[in-house]
């Protein structure tokens, strides 16, 4: 049976939970579109996250790999379009490292595009009542670091999805949007199904004016 690797992160930035890990771990062992889900947690640490990711890719040889991260302040499921070759950390990671303007791969291109059908995923989520959008930036913290490293490695179809705070997190950040864990899990289930069954992306608008 084919394998799909889903990764989420440990908590960071003073949070006690990370919605990315809470969501992906609930799909561990499930079967979606003829593939079995393997959920793995990554450290929120530059360098170490990619070492863990590569270990899981080597062990599982997945058909599809989707990394998932927390995007506090975003109101919907954000399907990332591009990862850029730079680490520029506004805050320190969980090991206290704060790289500034450092290349992720000195031999790599300036950017990689996701190989997921990103617009089809967004359309599918919206059709199922889940707020979603194409995101034009994965930031420059560990999420972008992992997305770039995942795409830099020749291997499975791959990409990155950001999810909002959980309600219990947003309650500690007045005014911040949130999404129920059940909706995040369903969004990832649908994203995996669409990525496995739709090779060509949808030709629909998904750009941004700013």
From TrEMBL:
This is Pyrrolidone-carboxylate peptidase. Keywords: Cytoplasm, Hydrolase, Protease, Thiol protease. Pfam families: Peptidase_C15. Coiled coil: none annotated. Its EC number is 3.4.19.3. The keyword Secreted does not apply. It is an enzyme of class 3 (hydrolase).
């Amino acid at each position: 049976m084919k394998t799909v690797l889903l990764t989420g992160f440990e908590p960071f930035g003073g949070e006690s939970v990370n919605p990315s890990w809470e969501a992906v771990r609930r799909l561990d062992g499930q079967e979606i579109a003829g593939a079995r889900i393997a959920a793995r947690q990554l450290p929120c640490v530059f360098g170490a996250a990619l070492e863990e990711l590569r270990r899981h890719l080597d062990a599982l040889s997945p058909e599809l790999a989707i990394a998932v991260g927390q995007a506090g302040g975003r109101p919907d499921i954000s399907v990332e379009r591009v990862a850029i070759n730079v680490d520029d950390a506004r805050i320190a990671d969980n090991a206290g490292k704060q790289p500034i303007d450092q290349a992720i791969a000195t031999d790599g291109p300036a950017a990689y595009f996701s190989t997921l059908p990103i617009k089809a995923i967004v359309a599918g989520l919206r059709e199922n009542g889940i707020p979603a959008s194409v995101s034009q930036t994965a930031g420059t913290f560990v999420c972008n670091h992992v997305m770039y490293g995942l795409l830099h490695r020749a291997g499975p179809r791959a990409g990155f999805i950001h999810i909002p705070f959980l309600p219990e997190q947003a309650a500690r950040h007045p005014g911040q949007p949130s999404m129920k864990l059940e909706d995040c899990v369903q969004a990832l289930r649908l994203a995996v199904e669409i990525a496995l069954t739709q090779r060509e992306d949808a030709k629909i608008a998904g750009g941004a004016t700013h």
